[in-house]
Design a protein that fits this description.
Blueprint lengths: L1 E2 L4 E8 L2 E8 L10 H39 L9 H52 L1
Antiparallel strand pairs: 1-2, 2-3
């Protein structure tokens, strides 16, 4: 949703775990260039980051549950390190750890891309303003 009066774009998505909302507000110095497409783009990029953070949170919950199961099994008198069940459990734990690490990297990459996008837009706006002043 674009609110022209407030110069802000709002992005909302419904997930099974709840509703996520992000907002991209135009900086007051940039009102002369404020537009819905830039707002949508920034709000969408922020939403991607939020979705990845939600995914990471859910992976951490799954990892905690599997670790709890492993520690419960490990203290059993009948625990067999070489059992099929333990091997599969360890494989699942390692897969989730890899997924968490990959998700962290994706979050960092998305944040860097958003920062780069905003910085590039800011530099572009500064150049246009400088050209306008020069022409005046």
């Amino acid at each position: 949703v674009w609110d022209k009066e407030k110069m802000e774009a709002k992005c909302t998505i419904e997930l099974p775990s709840g509703t996520l909302t992000t907002v991209a507000k135009c900086h007051p110095d940039d009102y002369d260039f404020g537009n819905e497409f830039t707002g949508y783009d920034i709000a969408d990029r922020r939403m991607s980051i939020k979705i990845l953070q939600t995914h990471k949170y859910e992976l951490n919950i799954r990892l905690s549950a599997l670790n709890q199961l492993y520690y419960s099994m490990k203290h059993s008198k009948r625990f067999n390190e070489k059992s099929y069940e333990n091997k599969m459990l360890q494989r699942q734990i390692n897969m989730i750890k890899q997924d968490i690490q990959t998700t962290k990297e994706m979050i960092e990459e998305e944040r860097n891309n958003l920062k780069s996008y905003i910085d590039t837009k800011d530099d572009f706006y500064k150049k246009i303003r400088a050209n306008r002043k020069k022409d005046d």
